[in-house]
Amino acid sequence: MRHFRLLVLGNGISAYGSYLNMVALNVFVYDVTGSALAAGLFMAVRLGTSVGAGFVAGRLVSAYDRKRLIVGADLCQATALLALLLAPDASRVVLLYGLAVITGSCSTLSQVALRSSIPVIVGAEHRTRANSWLVTGRSFAMIAGFSSAGVVVAQLGYSAAFVLNVSTFVVSASVLLALPIRTRALAEEKKGGDEEADGARWSVRLLLATAPVLMAMIALRAVDGLGSSSHNVALPVYSSALDPDHPATFISQFWATWAVGVIIAQQVLVRVTSRSGRTPGERAFAVGSIVMSAAFILVFSGLPTVPTLAVALVAGAADGVTEVIYVSRLQAVPDERRGRLFGLSASAENAGFGLGMLVSGSLLEAFSPLTVVAALHGLAIVLCSALLIVLVVRRPPPPEEERPGRGGGSVREGSS
Question: What sign has the CA pseudo-torsion 354, 357, 363, 366?
Answer without folding.
Answer: negative
